[in-house]
């Protein structure tokens, strides 16, 4: 049997293990990316590893998240990232240059290479045939230092795309269909490989919309083969030399298969507060809209923006709607300004924002109380917009633009024939906003603002772990719940003591106070705990608060690894009865841990209820060692002794 595209790349990069689903493998990482909300911590950790120069083919630090400067903190952190990058051999994409994933597609991504990024939407680069994975900052720091990346070999799922998209039906509708079918947990432990005649009809930005939101399925990553469509895109970016074909063999085998007939899809919407609450737009047509936000790494390409501009052209945004538009990169924004499309947006009344994440991460533009906000983004978790009572719907740029004009959620098919936007034969190329690193050995002073506080490092495992259950939460708790992010909190991503005051507060306002009062303890959770963002702050803040273990019905991939990297035990309930039985403030104890840690299960005593639970501890030897020796940094120091 031949190999699929994903396996071809894994095979080329395999350092340890065998490509058997579920088995631990280690792969070589060619390239890394960081952004500023996770980057400050990632570079502090890189410095803690004591490595002088990055050992990757290319590592890039982007500034795109923490863009509002309503105090010195964000600008201080940017200065830190810029100087630390220069010192250690990392390219620096300046604020204003665009959203990391969009700029990476345009200027840096290379088909067939591996990319590890400290952002959960790193798989966007699967749109040009990279094997691109999101991870915690510490894993990225290790990869920058030349360390391999460990993961369990995912199952490779063939998604056969048949037919063609109808008018007004978009790539967003394809990925929303996937979410509708599979849910936010449906991709755990999987790579989705999109193939078939339908896949060939999709442009690179369309493919990238799909691989981007594969993160919302919980997938390890998603990929489209690198074919002539990718070649044309790279040629138009002046980078044909970076192209190579990465296609599945004709007899390639897959672990699972599914099919989507593109011609059967309708325009769709993900309803509040989860990307998998998907319905047809026709079911929502009388919903009044207060805000529309177009942009984010999901839908901010040149083609997306051109379609929006032509829908808006000659019209005025509904008087009850505030429309914001954030073009994904400076390349996109400049091209819109040069061809006049930007003026269609401005004339229609759009509030054009800088090329950055912006409202997607609650960096401004929080909707009014109880507002309906239509967004072309990828996540609509409760409160992420900065307004807890807001109802955020996820849609295509077409639905967003049409609805901004009508003031109601609107099926764009009623607009007649859509304006056809061609992929440009040549993009506008100017890398003047990317700063080169220093030459090796050059003296660079790293600037550290007062907001940078030491980050907590785990301690080696103790023989007895005891404490109280401080909180109990349900299914699909996101890292936005565990470590909320908005314009007020993002400036403190390098200040864990401050951030910890907000840890888990969207679920339980008293959590930080309870943790302090009881000198730490445990968290109990339902399924898919820690889905969403890669922010390791969702492990660092609990570590700071003295959390020793999280007991969950299941975990999301990146968060689980972030817990282990920071020496926190992720234990899994074997049956739902045990989960149901535990109450907040129950006193738990795990004894004999120095022995128990070597087993596949761990006995947890509930002293309050006089019960015992046999919890799953399904980890690799390397992960076990991280828990034993107090996290990844301590393990690495120990190994290099
Ligand atoms: C997100 O979309 O949630 C973010 C902000 O890009 C995060 C990273 C972060 O929390 O800083 C992500 O997706 O990993
Ligand atoms: Fe930025 Fe939003 Fe994309 Fe995260 S999902 S990288 S916040 S645009």
TrEMBL record:
<dbReference type="InterPro" id="IPR018136">
    <property type="entry name" value="Aconitase_4Fe-4S_BS"/>
</dbReference>
<feature type="domain" description="Aconitase/3-isopropylmalate dehydratase large subunit alpha/beta/alpha">
    <location>
        <begin position="7"/>
        <end position="407"/>
    </location>
</feature>
<dbReference type="InterPro" id="IPR036008">
    <property type="entry name" value="Aconitase_4Fe-4S_dom"/>
</dbReference>
<dbReference type="InterPro" id="IPR001030">
    <property type="entry name" value="Acoase/IPM_deHydtase_lsu_aba"/>
</dbReference>
<dbReference type="InterPro" id="IPR006250">
    <property type="entry name" value="Aconitase_put"/>
</dbReference>
<keyword id="KW-0456">Lyase</keyword>
<feature type="domain" description="Aconitase A/isopropylmalate dehydratase small subunit swivel">
    <location>
        <begin position="520"/>
        <end position="575"/>
    </location>
</feature>
<dbReference type="Pfam" id="PF00694">
    <property type="entry name" value="Aconitase_C"/>
</dbReference>
<keyword id="KW-0408">Iron</keyword>
<dbReference type="InterPro" id="IPR015931">
    <property type="entry name" value="Acnase/IPM_dHydase_lsu_aba_1/3"/>
</dbReference>
<dbReference type="InterPro" id="IPR000573">
    <property type="entry name" value="AconitaseA/IPMdHydase_ssu_swvl"/>
</dbReference>
<comment type="similarity">
    <text>Belongs to the aconitase/IPM isomerase family.</text>
</comment>
<keyword id="KW-0411">Iron-sulfur</keyword>
<dbReference type="InterPro" id="IPR050926">
    <property type="entry name" value="Aconitase/IPM_isomerase"/>
</dbReference>
<dbReference type="InterPro" id="IPR015928">
    <property type="entry name" value="Aconitase/3IPM_dehydase_swvl"/>
</dbReference>
<dbReference type="GO" id="GO:0003994">
    <property type="term" value="F:aconitate hydratase activity"/>
</dbReference>
<comment type="subunit">
    <text>Monomer.</text>
</comment>
<keyword id="KW-0479">Metal-binding</keyword>
<dbReference type="Pfam" id="PF00330">
    <property type="entry name" value="Aconitase"/>
</dbReference>
<protein>
    <submittedName>
        <fullName>Aconitate hydratase</fullName>
        <ecNumber>4.2.1.3</ecNumber>
    </submittedName>
</protein>
């Amino acid at each position: 049997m031949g190999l699929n595209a994903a396996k071809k790349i894994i095979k080329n990069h395999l350092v340890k293990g065998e490509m058997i689903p579920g088995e631990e493998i280690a792969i070589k990482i060619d390239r890394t990316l960081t952004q500023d909300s996770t980057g400050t911590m990632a570079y502090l950790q890189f410095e803690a590893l004591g490595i002088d120069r990055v050992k990757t083919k290319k590592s890039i630090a982007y500034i795109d998240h923490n863009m509002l400067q309503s105090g010195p903190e964000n600008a201080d952190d940017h200065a830190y990232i810029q100087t630390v990058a220069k010192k250690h051999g990392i390219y620096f994409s300046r604020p204003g240059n665009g959203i990391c994933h969009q700029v990476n597609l345009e200027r840096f991504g290379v088909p067939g290479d591996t990319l590890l990024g400290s952002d959960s939407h790193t798989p966007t680069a699967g749109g040009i045939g990279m094997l691109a994975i999101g991870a915690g900052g510490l894993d990225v720091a290790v990869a920058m230092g030349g360390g391999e990346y460990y993961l369990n070999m995912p199952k490779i799922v063939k998604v056969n795309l048949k037919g063609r998209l109808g008018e007004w039906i978009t790539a967003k509708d394809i990925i929303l269909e996937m979410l509708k079918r599979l849910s936010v947990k449906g991709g755990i432990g999987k790579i989705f490989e999109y193939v078939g005649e339908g896949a060939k009809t999709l442009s690179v930005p369309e493919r990238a919309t799909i691989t981007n939101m594969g993160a919302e399925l919980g997938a390890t990553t998603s990929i489209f083969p690198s074919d002539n469509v990718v070649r044309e895109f790279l040629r138009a970016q002046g980078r044909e030399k970076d192209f190579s074909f990465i296609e599945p063999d004709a007899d390639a085998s897959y672990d699972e298969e599914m099919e989507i007939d593109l011609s059967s899809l309708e325009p769709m919407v993900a309803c509040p507060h989860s990307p998998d609450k998907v319905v047809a737009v026709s079911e929502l047509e009388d919903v009044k809209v207060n805000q529309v936000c177009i942009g984010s790494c999901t839908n901010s390409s040149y083609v997306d923006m051109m379609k929006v501009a032509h829908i808006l052209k000659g019209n005025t945004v509904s008087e009850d709607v505030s429309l914001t538009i954030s073009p994904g990169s400076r390349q996109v924004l400049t091209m819109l300004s040069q061809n006049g499309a930007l003026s269609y947006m401005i004339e229609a009344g759009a509030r054009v924002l800088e090329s950055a994440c912006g409202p997607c991460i609650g960096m401004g533009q929080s909707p009014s109380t109880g507002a309906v906000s239509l967004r072309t983004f990828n996540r609509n978790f409760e409160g992420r917009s900065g307004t807890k009572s807001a109802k955020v719907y996820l849609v295509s740029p077409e639905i967003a633009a049409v609805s901004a004009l009508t003031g109601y959620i609107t099926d764009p098919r009623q607009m007649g024939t859509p304006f056809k936007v061609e992929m440009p034969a040549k993009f506008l190329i100017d890398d003047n906003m990317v700063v080169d690193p220093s030459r090796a050995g050059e003296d660079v002073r790293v600037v550290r603002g007062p907001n940078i506080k030491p980050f907590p490092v785990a301690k080696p495992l103790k023989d007895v772990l005891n404490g109280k259950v401080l909180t109990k939460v349900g299914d699909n708790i996101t890292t936005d719940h565990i470590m909320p992010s908005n314009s007020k909190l993002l400036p403190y991503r390098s200040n864990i003591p401050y951030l910890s005051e907000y840890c888990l507060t969207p679920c339980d306002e008293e959590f930080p106070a309870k943790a302090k009062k009881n000198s730490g303890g445990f968290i109990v959770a339902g399924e898919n705990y820690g889905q969403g963002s890669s922010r390791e702050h969702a492990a660092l803040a609990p570590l700071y608060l003295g959390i020793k273990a999280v007991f969950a019905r299941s975990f999301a991939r990146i968060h689980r690894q972030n817990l282990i990297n920071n020496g926190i035990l992720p234990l899994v309930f074997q049956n739902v009865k045990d989960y149901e039985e535990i109450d907040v403030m129950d006193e738990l104890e795990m004894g004999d841990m120095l022995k128990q840690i070597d087993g596949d299960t761990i006995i947890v005593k509930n002293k309050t209820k006089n019960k015992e639970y046999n919890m799953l501890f399904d980890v690799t030897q390397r992960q076990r060692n991280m828990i034993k020796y107090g996290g990844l940094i301590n393990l690495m120091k120990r190994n290099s002794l």
